[in-house]
Amino acid sequence: MTNALHITRRLLLAGLGLFLAASQLTHAAEIRVITSGAFTEAYKQLVPEFEKKTGHKVISSFGASVGNAPDSIPTRFSRGEKFDLVILSDGGLEALIKNGKVIPGSRVDLVRSQIGAAVRKGTPKPDISTVEALKATLLNAKSIAYSASASGTYLSTELFAKLGVAEQLKDTAKKIMSERVGAVVARGDAELGFQQVSELIYFKELDFIGTLPESVQQTIFFSAGLVEGSTEQETAKQLIRFFQSPEVADVIRKTGVDPVAAR
User: Which domains does the chain have, with CATH numbers?
Assistant: First the structure.
């Protein structure tokens, strides 16, 4: 009788273990996320920790916030690619909301980002500390690379004109499609590069020379939004809360952007 009871108990415990394991698998979700440049470094460091803590699996894609490059976020949505969560510049997110791709009212600002400049390591470091110095540096540069995403849109459509150098830069300034500006400067294809700080500081081949002067700087929010038609909205919200949590704030700061505190 005793042996029979022990066997029965072991079977019950084994069954309970299988039930709990099955229950955990049931609650583990798979979500598809696409993010743009400025938040990419923080995202890559934090997602494995989120997966480890929750058991969820995150399938990641990357693309520019704006523009019509084949891998840009707007292009990928337009050709019907499916995602549960999107993270990009606030302007890009608002456009997706307007176009019915992202749920209205789901926007959550994650980080603030600023535009900086870099040159290839070992080359002269031009001055961009004042508006006049920035203007002179732009005019003297033999070749300039800027992003096809949010920062480059600001430079090419607003800042260059504001500084009165747009016409002069038509031959020397180039929009970079589907590639980080830092990579172009690092291999010597451009003398000077402008992009979000977080996208420049990780290139060991570059010398970061600073951010744009405050009076002409553009601070961009990078924000998360829930995609229309997603079946994993609760898991997506869980990931957003993780990105907002105080325990990951230092990791985010070290990637060159400032976290926006959860409200």
Answer: 9-111+222-259 (3.40.190.10), 115-216 (3.40.190.10)
CB 110 within 8 A of CB 38: no
| pLDDT of res. 10 | 56
> Average model confidence (pLDDT) for the chain?
90
The DSSP line for 23-53 is HHHHH--EEEEEE-GGGHHHHHHHHHHHHHH
Residue type, 45: Q
Q: Which two tokens stand for residue 227?
A: 């995609």
Rounded Cα–Cα distance for residues 41 and 37 (Å):
8
**In whole angstroms, how large is the CA radius of gyration of the chain?**
23
Q: Determine the distance from the C-alpha atom of residue 222 to the mean position of all C-alpha atoms in its chain, rounded to a whole number.
A: 7
Q: Are 141 and 191 in contact (CB under 8 A)?
A: yes
DSSP string, 171-194: TTEEEEPSS-HHHHHHTTS-SEEE
Using a cut of 0.85, tell me whether the model's pTM lies above it: no
DSSP alpha helices (H): ranges in the chain? 2-27, 40-54, 73-78, 90-98, 131-140, 150-154, 160-163, 181-186, 197-200, 233-244, 249-253
